[in-house]
Amino acid sequence: MLLTDYRWRGDSAPIGRVELEWQGAAYVLGFFGEKQEEARAGYAAFVAKGIDEGRRPDLTGGGLVRSVGV
Length: 70
Hints:
- This protein is mostly helical.
- It has three helices and no strands.
- The chain has one domain.
């Protein structure tokens, strides 16, 4: 199964899987290009790069854990 096929992913609207007005897909995609197709491609590349970087300890454990510095 590809990540884009996963029904419950949090960014279903920006990738074009569903339309959720409250998710602000157009705002997010605006950072990646002016045309929808190029913006979605740029967004997909951004997500793929993040996956390739792996898990970041500084972004895990919840806000309280990070703020305490544990």
